[in-house]
UniProtKB/TrEMBL annotation:
It comes from Mucilaginibacter aquatilis. Its main location: membrane. It comes from the Bacteria. GO terms for molecular function: ABC-type oligopeptide transporter activity; ATP binding; ATP hydrolysis activity. This is ATP-binding cassette domain-containing protein. Keywords: ATP-binding, Membrane, Nucleotide-binding, Transmembrane, Transmembrane helix.
Length: 609
């Protein structure tokens, strides 16, 4: 039955959207039920026990009635013993049996739900991490996160609780009505004439009240946003002397909250009076009419007790269905969203690490052959136009160009995050499609602009480049990356925890960790996406040295922002609006009077001077 929550101080409940229940949605959701299959034995046993415990629950009112009747010397049921104590002991034995049945029912249901949900979670997560980059370009991390947490929790709740509750309430409703008739047909007709209407009214009214309380909560959440925003931007508020304006805004919002809550309070009052008067009134009426029947000798007192209990069962079952139905709708919505991910086409990557070992070695020759590319999400903007580059194994090729010219996009194409619409990428002269995706990614390493370290130790972060690396290998890589010294400077050395809850590393230190990581990976092709924010000169020297060490003996594609670092490159490619406009060595390009490279060099020279 509706639980009215009108206090505006209640935490706003995060409601999952509900889905319409129809043949189509149920059919698609039934796909998720295949996850229960491996545990069907326990599931069916749980169902049977649930059915049994619900049936047993129906026996108790009869036993209580029989007890009361026995006290007055009436024995209605032939199968029951003719002694009060024996009936009571029988009741306790039944109660104990029901407790045992309930125990197994709960344990088995939870086991099945936990295991199958873990399977769904695992599959969803694995699918998520193997989905192509384009999938992530169109979605927010928070939204995906909520599918793994909120949506799956809703499904889990439904499997463990709602599903069992529906079956139990159905048994209680059907059994209750039948037994009401058995106990007294006259009283049953009287109850059934009013009870369904009262329950329906209570449910609808309860829903209305809940809506009102949700409005109050939403308004309150709005006012909390005002507090949050003002405090975050307190400097702005003060600088613009907008304290009074913000206070007025907050005050108006609070008044609205109070307005809605007070309006709701009236309805809540009506609801409470209704429940007290009508629902309890019905029971008073039943007892009244029942008492008349008892005094006329048409019914025993025990029967009346039994009857009252059954009518409570029936009323409660009727009242519970709307909530249960809403839960099922939410679970169906959640299942559909999860299924949407599960049915996406993932990249060809195996869940087993052993399947992803390198099968075809790449020497490091890299070719962009007349590549045209647009991001799938923005087909109208051609990001790369007829791009052709040839990098021989071991060469250093620098890509320069203004912001937005497509440099990082080229790195994404090398890593096979996206595929060109026209033209092809060749590795050692063979099209990328002829290699396993993991072969290419295993032999290409990137040192990105913004190095993300995972929450964990420095050791773990370096070993991300090669998870089988020994401590000695990790230390060697750190030494070559000029990182060993600063790592040893921490009291916990390589076991220092970094990331959100750990030590904060400077930009240069993070880069050297990333370089050590790439050194461990030992790739044939290296992509260096140079950091735009400049480091201090000592840090810069250490990073530069580490990069030189990293680039030795491999093809390096350097996305350069500071042109001073690429003078030694074998080839410099100048990109403008997705098109290559100049190619050559530093010496060749710097002499071109009208060239973009020369212009950009001069700009940097001027600003750094
Ligand atoms: N995931 C994406 N989806 C759609 N468009 C994108 C995406 N990533 C980049 N773009 C667009 O592609 C173009 C090239 O971007 P790219 O990041 O490759 O440029 P860049 O030369 O690396 O720039 P910067 O030097 O600022 O890093 C830009 O117009 C950008 O808006």
């Amino acid at each position: 039955m509706a639980r009215a929550r009108l206090n505006s101080g209640n935490a706003a409940e995060k409601e999952l959207p509900k889905a319409k229940l129809n043949k189509q949605t149920l059919k698609s959701v039934s796909k998720l039920l295949t996850y229960i299959k491996p545990y069907r034995g326990k599931f069916i046993a749980g169902l049977f026990f649930l059915f049994l415990s619900s049936l047993v629950a129906l026996v108790f009112p009869a036993i209580l009635g029989a007890l009361i009747d026995a006290a007055q010397g009436n024995y209605k049921y032939k199968f029951m013993p003719r002694s009060i104590n024996a009936i009571a002991i029988g009741g306790f034995i039944l109660l104990f049996a029901q407790a045992c049945v309930s125990f197994f029912r709960v344990v088995w249901f939870v086991q099945v739900a936990e295991r199958s949900l873990a399977d769904i979670r695992r599959d969803t997560y694995f699918k998520l991490v193997t989905l192509p980059m384009n999938f992530f370009a169109n979605r927010r991390v928070g939204e995906l996160n909520s599918r793994i947490s909120a949506d799956l929790s809703q499904i889990q709740d439904t499997l463990t609780t709602t599903f069992a509750e529906i079956i139990r309430q159905l048994v209680l409703l059907a059994g209750g009505v039948i037994l009401l008739v058995v106990v007294s047909i006259k009283l049953t007709l009287a109850v059934l004439a009013v009870l369904p209407f009262l329950v329906a009214f209570a449910v609808v009214f309860g829903k209305f009240i809940r809506n009102l309380s949700r409005q109050a909560q939403d308004k309150l959440a709005e006012s909390n946003t005002i507090v949050e925003e003002t405090l975050q931007g307190i400097a702005n508020v003060k600088a613009f002397v907008n304290e009074a304006f913000e206070a007025g805004r907050y005050d108006k919002n609070l008044r609205d909250v109070v307005g809605i809550a007070v309006k709701g309070a009236k309805f809540r009052g009506i609801f409470a009076s209704f429940i007290v008067f009508c629902m309890f009134g019905t029971f008073v009426g039943v007892i009244w009419y029942g008492s008349v029947l008892v005094s006329n000798g048409e019914m025993h007192t025990g029967d009346l007790t039994t009857f009252i209990m059954y009518s409570i069962f029936v009323g409660a079952a009727m009242g519970s269905f709307p909530d249960l139905y809403a839960n099922v709708q939410k679970a169906v919505g959640a299942s559909e969203r999860v299924l949407e991910i599960l049915s996406e086409e993932g990249e060809n990557i195996s869940i087993r690490e052993s399947d992803n070992v390198i099968k075809q070695h790449i020497q490091g020759n890299l070719t962009f052959q007349n590549i045209n590319f647009h991001y799938p999400s923005r087909p109208e903007i051609e990001v790369l136009k007829d791009v052709s580059i040839d990098a021989q194994a071991g060469q250093k090729v620098a890509i320069v160009g203004p912001s937005g010219s497509g440099k990082s996009t080229m790195a994404s194409l090398i890593l096979q995050f996206y595929h060109p619409q026209n033209g092809s990428m060749l590795f050692d002269g063979k099209p990328a499609a002829e290699y396993a995706l993991t072969d290419i990614r295993n032999q290409v390493a990137i040192v990105p602009q913004d190095v993300l370290l995972f929450g964990g130790t420095i050791r773990e972060n370096i070993a991300y480049g090669k998870r089988s690396a020994t401590n000695e290998e990790i230390m060697q890589a750190a030494k070559r990356a000029n990182a060993h010294q600063f790592i040893e400077g921490f009291p916990e050395g390589y076991d220092t925890v970094v990331g959100e809850r750990g030590v904060k590393l400077s930009g240069g230190q993070r880069q050297r960790i990333a370089i050590a990581r790439a050194l461990l990976k030992n790739p044939s092709i290296l992509i260096l996406d140079e950091a735009t924010s400049s480091l201090d000169s000592e840090s810069e020297r250490l990073v530069q040295e580490a990069l030189e060490e990293l680039m030795k003996g491999r093809t390096s594609i350097i996305i350069a922002h500071r042109l001073s670092t690429i003078r030694e490159a074998d080839k410099i490619v100048v990109l403008e609006k997705g098109r290559i406009i100049e190619t050559g060595t530093h010496e060749e390009l710097i002499t071109r009077e009208e060239g973009l490279y020369r212009y950009l060099s001069q700009l940097q020279f001027d600003t750094s001077a």
